[in-house]
């Protein structure tokens, strides 16, 4: 399944043009969206995630028309927003349980299995009964990935996930992303070049709402 974006444009009511004729073709695996602050990354991520509308253009995810079928898209989408807030006074275990119920995993045994697997996968098993308010930045981000993975989505969008992380946590987070990017589309928005060069075999550089370059980061580095 591919994500195909064609001529997407978006101008905010105050006149800022955040997206200017953006076209991208994204295959399964990790896709890096690289650009400085204000480039339009969040605007693009929010539009793909059906959280905001575009003025023009189309987005297709497999057979789905993303802008016209937001409900169906949300069923196959996991989204980790840039400013990811956690409820401080519940545990990871409790909150994942809760979200699993919302996702429709109504069978208790099955839910236990799904939640336990995610806690292990994101390395939060030991800390599962701690309140999220006591988590480090890296742990919160990994919790965000666990939450985004509920329902086994075909498309995962992570917006600037490594920005506040120290090198050890960033490394751990990279490993987790590489693992979840094996069998689905993962779009990683970042202004950090090594996020892209370490993890992605496809990427785009975006600035001032325009796509400046698309390709394979290893090839791009050789060409520079
Ligand atoms: P990035 O995620 O790359 O930092 P954004 O998509 O957040 O870029 O922003 C792109 C441009 O659009 C910036 O100039 C930003 O200030 C502007 N912008 C973002 N959101 C809004 C909004 N809701 N209203 C007006 N301007 C916005
Ligand atoms: P980013 O770091 O991705 O550019 P911001 O921190 O600029 O994101 O944006 C955070 C929130 O503020 C978003 O909901 C965005 O839509 C909004 N926003 C950003 N820039 C503007 C702006 N110039 N006018 C109004 N809202 C904005």
TrEMBL record:
ABC transporter domain segment(s): 3-224
Residues forming coiled coils: none
Extent of the signal sequence: none
Keyword ATP-binding on entry: yes
Molecular-function GO terms, alphabetical: ATP binding; ATP hydrolysis activity
Keyword Protease: no
Keywords of this entry: ATP-binding, Nucleotide-binding, Transport
Family designation: Belongs to the ABC transporter superfamily.
Stated name of the protein: ABC transporter ATP-binding protein
Included stretch of the parent chain: 1 to 224 of 299
């Amino acid at each position: 399944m591919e994500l195909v974006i064609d001529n997407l444009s978006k101008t905010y009511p105050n006149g800022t043009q955040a997206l200017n004729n953006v076209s991208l073709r994204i295959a399964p695996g990790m896709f890096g969206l690289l650009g400085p602050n204000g480039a339009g990354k969040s605007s693009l991520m929010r539009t793909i995630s059906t959280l905001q509308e575009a003025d023009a253009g189309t987005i297709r995810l497999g057979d789905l028309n993303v802008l016209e079928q937001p409900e169906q898209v949300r069923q196959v989408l996991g989204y980790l927003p840039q400013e990811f807030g956690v409820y401080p006074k519940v545990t990871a275990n409790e909150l994942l349980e809760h979200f699993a119920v919302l996702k429709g995993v109504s069978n208790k045994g099955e839910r236990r299995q799904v939640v336990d697997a995610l806690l292990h996968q994101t390395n939060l098993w030991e800390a599962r009964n701690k309140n999220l308010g006591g988590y480090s930045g890296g742990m919160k981000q990994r919790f965000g990935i666990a939450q985004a993975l509920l329902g086994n989505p075909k498309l995962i969008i992570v917006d600037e996930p490594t920005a506040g992380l120290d090198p050890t946590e960033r490394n751990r987070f990279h490993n987790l992303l590489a693992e979840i990017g094996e069998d689905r589309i993962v779009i990683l928005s970042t202004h950090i070049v090594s996020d892209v060069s370490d993890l992605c075999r496809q990427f785009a550089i975006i600035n001032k709402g325009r796509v400046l370059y698309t390709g394979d980061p290893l090839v791009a580095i050789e060409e520079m």
